[in-house]
Amino acid sequence: MVNSNKIRILDNMKDTKINNVFTLGVREPQPNDKRVSYSQYTMYANCPHQWKLNYMDGFRTFDPSIHLVFGTAMHETLQEWLDVLYNKSPKEATELDLGKMLYESMVTEYKKMREQTGVEFSTPSEMEEFLEDGINILNFVTKNRLDYFNTRHMKLVAIELPIYSTAMESHNVYMMGFLDLVFEDTYENKLQIWDIKTSTNGWNKWMKADKTKTAQLVLYKKFLSEQYGYPIDKISTQYFIVKRRLMEGMMFAQKRVQTFEPASGKPTVNKITKSFEDFIRNSFNEDGSYRTDSEFPAMAGKNNKNCKWCPFKNDYDKCPKENRHKV
Q1: Is 138 helix (H, G, I), strand (E, B) or coil?
Q2: pTM
Q3: What is the CA radius of gyration of the chain?
Q4: CA–CA separation, 127 and 130 (whole Å)
Q5: Of the residues 179, 220, 237, 251, which has the fewest C-beta atoms closer than 10 A?
Q6: Which residues pair with 154 in a beta bridge?
Q7: Each residue's pLDDT tens digit, 180-239
């Protein structure tokens, strides 16, 4: 049985369950540390000006949504089920009332976001709809458990494994992140990093080709290797995508789960590392302060796709329409 412990990093961070495969050499975050996350990097990669407005200029906003509520609750429910499945027994895992767990987690997350923002952002009928979709996902996963979660040659060695490492050697900036699931393949003697994603219909070929979407696990692979001293060539990556809805009118059987392994070999790691370090170099001085002398262009993208969900899309004082680049 996996020897599992819980640790907590920082006052607002997640409970982490971790196996002794890792030595917890995580630097304790300090209040004045300059920290970046993968979401910061993707925001910068899509539109540097949006990143500047959010982080340098302090106009960061939080928009609550039922999708965020559902995504967080589904993560927590699946992780709790997997913890019991791997660290206790499959029998005990089957006895869990996952529907109730998902419901309670959704209610908790909704109340938390409502208190944080003062906004009623969903309705009981919408919550019920998402809950029903979630129960369908959980029923599919548990029914087809052996297709995804083999307890014979796979050990669950970490849930929410913390990453807190220098973003690049020359800069006093720290990369912070959490790995949803880390498995050890005892047949291959390798680690597998899994990231749980919730999606309406799954990822299409354009989503899979979007490097700002798939680069997350590649970066986490690099930082996991550096932080914990694990050989990078013995780490694989996989997205575990759960779908709320199935396509109507299909002639073939559909699954509620989609798995996707992004390219994560040395050339890909080097390319994404360079892009990430360009973000650090352009945005921060070596002491970790913001670089006010850099340029942060507004990138609307093709058909203004980067502006679609941007909170500043109609704020022409902060982001003049004529300054937005289409390419």
Answers
A1: helix
A2: 0.91
A3: 21
A4: 5
A5: 251
A6: 185
A7: 999 999 999 999 999 999 999 999 999 999 998 999 999 999 999 998 888 999 999 999
